[in-house]
Amino acid sequence: MATEDSTGDQLGRSAALRLQQLKGQLFEVALVAATLVGIVSLLVLFAYISVDAFRPGTASPAWFLVYLGTLVAPTAAFTLYARRRPAVRTANAVAFAAVFGGLLLSAVTYAVVDALSPYDVFIYGVFASLPPMLVLAYDRTTEGQAYTGPLILVSILVGIGVAAVVDGPISGPLGIAAEWIMYFGLVTVPAALLVGTLTASRRGRRTGAVAGGAVAAGGLAVAGASIATGANASLLVVLFSAFVVPTGYVVRRSVRTNPAGRVGLAGPFVLLGGALLGAALVERFGIETPDTFLTPTLVLESWDGLTASNAGVYPQIVGSIIIVGFMAVLAFPVGIGAAIYLEEYAPNSGFRGRLATLLEVNISNLAGVPSVVYGLLGLALFRRTLGFGTGIVVSASGTLGLLILPIVIVSTQEALRSVPDDLRQGSYGMGASRWQTLREVVLPEAIPGTLTGTILALARAIGETAPLVIIAVATTTYSPPSGLFSSATALPLQIFAASANAKPEFRHGVVPAAAVVLLTLMLLMNATAIVIRNKYGRET
Amino acid sequence: MASSHDADTAGITRRKSLAAIAGAGALGLAGCTSGSGGSGNGSGGETLSGDIRISGSSTVYPVAQEVTRQFAEQHSEVSFNLTRDGSGGGFNNVFIPGDSDMNNASRPITENELQRCRDNGIEPVEFFLAQDALTVVVNNEADWIDSISLEELRTIWSPDTAPELWSDVNSDWPDEPFDLYGPASTSGTYDYFIEAVIGETEADQDIRSDFEGTEEDDLIAQGVSGNRYALGYLPFAYYTNNPDTVKALSLSEGGSDPVEPSLQAAQSGSYPLARPLFSYGHMGKIQEKNHLQAFIEFYINEAAKDYVAEDIGYVPASQDMVDSNLANLEEAIAGEYEYSA
């Protein structure tokens, strides 16, 4: 009896166990399904947009074969080769970051400075950078200066203020100088100083001076050669200083520090070379290319509302970059400052503690307020109260800055919170003050998290449409904004307008192509965030 | 690809070389240099410079967009700023506060708007630029109907009658419920339809409320093409560019012969739903800005060109309209213009 009882018991138990297991498996399946619904529908959407923009169906098979042979196969083979060898992979990653980072930096710098006028940017650049450098030099040469830190900040602000006053009178006479000289001052001089300092710190002052001098001389040589051949000297100077110099520096350093991975440096050049070779072959043999809307015209020309193949969004792209760039200048110091106060200084108890908690709850809620509401706030604040014109860069940047402020604050707070308290206590234990602890211990630890959060906020801002519509930012302009107080324009607005165009090739061709451009801009920002985070993450 | 830009400005040359070089990347630097020898400034005797801000109707936007593009190509120093705020939105938020130089409108300026303009010291200068034919559309498979009278349209859309079924309006039509699509109440098209078709109503609303209202013409066409018993109305420009998606109805008024929607019919006045498109200039700014005067003159003349009909789908201005617009411009420059309805 007893044995029978226990077997029945066991049977019952194992059935219950199996039921439990089944329940667990079903739950897992449900979770996988939930994950897939979101991801798959997003992928389908992106595929749909990309197919409309690229129109791969219109290309001849030969076109696919050519690029498979020159671009896809060699790059894939190289990547596979590099994946197996860690040294090669590291060199490959570094070379990719240098080449594409350099190209991106050159393009953005040139486009933005060209839009804002190189002379003005040069004047502001000189006045904002010379005073702090003088202060820094003074700090280096004399001992025990306690006030140079704050003084650097003040000197930058004063410099910008002075620049605003003298810009008018100076820019006239400065206009006699060629444009490329401004770019030389803005890009080549900093590049030469950077290379010089970096080399000096590793291999002595003399070599540093030679390296810096070589960069400057190279810049002059490029300018001279391009003037002689009639090419665009400004652009070539920028490309030389922000693309060739960093790439050369990184390649040289990589060869020195990582000789085993030397081959990896060829990675980006395999990709670029393949693309160029493919283009040359297609051109040479007259192979039918896809009838795509994602053309150089789209990225480099201005808008045409009648002929889809002539429509371009260059002013809108540069406008978006300028708006978001100035927004970052406005919102990041304020947001990060507020987060540091709330996390590190704000009292935890008493009446003021409750006030701080109330503030934090409000900020968290503000992060979820619809963007249209921020548009109304921007209209009320910048147009009605401060009396700025509607739709100028300052209003647009300010409105978007308010929009991302809560996101910046919350993500910075999160990053500060994740710094272990032991580190703070240890620092206090060594006799450091609160400010010293913050500056030397907490902030460096929190930088990766802060940067990730803030750059993701930038990516959100670049796609915002509703607040810009409310403050009447221009949909169509034919030149990018020429200053902070001139008419702004932004890419999402033109996409929105084109989606109402009567011609179907706009709605189903130009709109998806421009959306791909916007997505690319956003992905580039996210990629920058990841690269910066990984770099800092590794060092600390 | 033949370049359509005869005025190759410095900016465009620079951008082109940016394209060439960014594309060529590293190898491009070593090898080729793009040989786009900068051709100096194009045509255009006097150099005009400054900015021009145009707000208002999204219906007029395609015309303004094309005209400004051409003007900007000839005068690279003039920068434009175009927004699509809707006729009323443009007046209220941009033009009346004094921020824009011109406001496009797909209906005449209202009493209230005029009053507020004048309170702010702005005299709006009217330019009657073109006309748009409103098109009533049904599903391609709606084989029982080819034409409709304005009276029937009024019965369908008026809040006083608001019939459920097609057969409630005309016994020859099927016993099926209506599925109605139209522009949202923020649109100038909506305002015009209310005024021209529905008129005064006994109910305290302008139009029956059970229809799909949207700002996007595309969605109206999609809605109508998705249901055999749907009916909607659209700007003619949208219909001409997408003729296969929906079927346009001929219109009759007061027992007259039905007229097919066309630009000719709208121009001759035989098509009952042709609405005027305007642009209003800021007189003070017109007097102040030379480049604005030049642009408005260009705008007035361009609005009479064939491409307004062929590429945009509106009825171009007649010579009479051009003459009276130019007269208005001259009065405005002299500071003597005064708006009267």
TrEMBL record, chain A:
Q: Name one Pfam family in it.
A: BPD_transp_1
Segments traversing the membrane: 26-49, 61-81, 93-113, 119-138, 150-168, 180-200, 207-227, 233-251, 263-282, 317-342, 363-382, 388-410, 510-532
Q: Which domain of life is it from?
A: Archaea
Quote a single Gene Ontology cellular component term. Answer: plasma membrane
Location(s) in or outside the cell: Cell membrane
PROSITE patterns associated with the record:
ABC_TM1
Q: Name one GO molecular function term.
A: phosphate transmembrane transporter activity
Family per record: Belongs to the binding-protein-dependent transport system permease family. CysTW subfamily.
What is this protein's name?
Phosphate transport system permease protein PstA
From TrEMBL, chain B:
Say yes or no: keyword Signal present.
yes
Gene3D superfamilies assigned to the protein according to its UniProt record, in alphabetical order: Periplasmic binding protein-like II
Q: According to the lineage, what is the superkingdom? A: Archaea
**Span of domain PBP:** 43-301
**What SUPFAM superfamilies does this protein map onto?**
Periplasmic binding protein-like II
**Which InterPro entries does the entry link to?**
PBP_domain, Phos-bd, Phosphate_ABC_transporter
Q: Print the keywords alphabetically.
A: Signal, Transport
- Is Transport tagged as a keyword? yes
**Listed name of the protein:** Phosphate transport system substrate-binding protein
This entry's Gene Ontology molecular function terms read: phosphate ion binding
Origin species: Halorubrum sodomense
What Pfam families does the database record attribute to this sequence? Answer: PBP_like_2
